[in-house]
Amino acid sequence: MAIKKLDVVTQVCPFPLIEAKAALAEMASGDELVIEFDCTQATEAIPQWAAEEGHAITDYQQIGDASVEYHRSKSLTQH
């Protein structure tokens, strides 16, 4: 299992979600994507998209006042 870190702090929506989709498309099943962002809309959009796609959010951390970090595992059923 590989871990990829994606730092999209300072990017406004929808760019954190677009970057997350692109990163996951290049990853193997079971790999983990760590996304750090500070866009408030992404706080809802990223977990919603992950659930729709069948990806599990394995960890969530609030970092400071505005920054958030999600750990997500790519679904084993995704190709």
UniProtKB/TrEMBL annotation:
Residues in UPF0033 domain copies: 6-30
InterPro entries to which the protein is assigned, alphabetical: TusA-like, TusA-like_sf
Pfam families on file: TusA
Source organism superkingdom: Bacteria
Signal peptide start and end residues: none
Family stated for the protein in its record: Belongs to the sulfur carrier protein TusA family.
Protein name in UniProt: SirA family protein
Species name: Escherichia coli
